[in-house]
UniProtKB/TrEMBL annotation:
The protein's required cofactors: pyridoxal 5'-phosphate
First-level EC class: transferase
Protein name in UniProt: Histidinol-phosphate aminotransferase
Source species of the chain: Streptomyces glaucosporus
Region of interest (Disordered), residue spans: 1-25
PANTHER family: HISTIDINOL-PHOSPHATE AMINOTRANSFERASE (PTHR42885:SF2), HISTIDINOL-PHOSPHATE AMINOTRANSFERASE-RELATED (PTHR42885)
Highest taxon of source: Bacteria
SUPFAM superfamilies assigned to the protein according to its UniProt record, in alphabetical order: PLP-dependent transferases (SSF53383)
List of residues that carry N6-(pyridoxal phosphate)lysine: 229
Span of domain Aminotransferase class I/classII large: 28-361
Amino acid sequence: MTGIDDLPIRDELRGQSPYGAPQLDVPVRLNTNENPHPLPEPLVARIAERVAEAARELNRYPDRDAVELRTGLARYLTRTTGYEVGTENVWAANGSNEVLQQLLQAFGGPGRTAIGFEPSYSMHALIARGTGTGWISGPRHDDFRLDVDAARAVIAERRPHVVFVCSPNNPTGTAVDADTVLALYEAAQAARPSLVIVDEAYGEFSHRPSLLPLIDGRPHLVVSRTMSKAFGAAGLRLGYLAAHPAVVDAVQLVRLPYHLSAVTQATALAALEHTDTLLGYVEQLKTERDRLVAELRAMGCEVTESDANFVQFGRFDGPGGARAVWQALLDRGVLVRDNGVPGRLRVTAGTPAENDAFLDAMRAVLKEND
Ligand code: PMP
């Protein structure tokens, strides 16, 4: 039988497996950092209206530059961060994964390197590989905070073309402050200069203000965002970035023409009209996230400080490690994520009932292992 490796595939893809969490049909799914709230019915109705309008013109290609949508996103960012962002600062694509891919196509590529501080979002390394960009795995402190001195040293030594700073970081939940980003930005500019990408996919859930205002006067700094988490629209596939207009011009050199369908643009615009309701859900999720942290700590778990809509917890150093606890939770109908961080698991904040089910299952598992 012909397998992948029998194909004339690129050498660096041989023996690799695709990214993806198991999509198991269990009662409580807290494994992919999705928002547990379905979109509110008035928004569903508005999407239907706007998509119907778009459908009348589906014989035509969509607005290639997505100007109306980028203007709406710029307004949203200005309103929520207090930093004035214009249409020319914003670019949108099919999920922030595509935004990151376009950035690496434009600023990485063969003969170039990108660095991330791991454990972090594993797609950064995978998108690097897919775009022929070399990957450098940078360090973190043992408690998963970014180690600024070590990061500066490795940037100076390896001189990467692209630096990823994921804040809040997936899977650890840890966030960085503006001074940390500035320190890395300065190190990256002294070394090359290189492009610094702040991945703020979970920005709205943070206790800290957005790092977005740092793009001011820093044309090599990009902040990427998504509607998958805070807007509860993972199925929509809409990510975006804010940066100097020159960066927006640069990604247009590599984007496929008409990459963002008219249906996607119409749906995202409808979602933006309901920002207040959706941000209300974010507030509830932040409260639930803080409750998960507190209750897991009360059970004796070691819990990493979280600024995201998920929580990293452990330590499971017993027989079978984190994998055994993951399986024991699954046996009780609760799916969490094993990201391969030794002794740790990650749980996404769900509805209060889902979180209760998870906490009950955890108590039972810990009692059993006692
Ligand atoms: N960045 C981070 C840190 C993420 O965790 C994710 C999704 N899990 C993404 C980017 C990509 O999200 P999307 O493509 O849905 O916008």
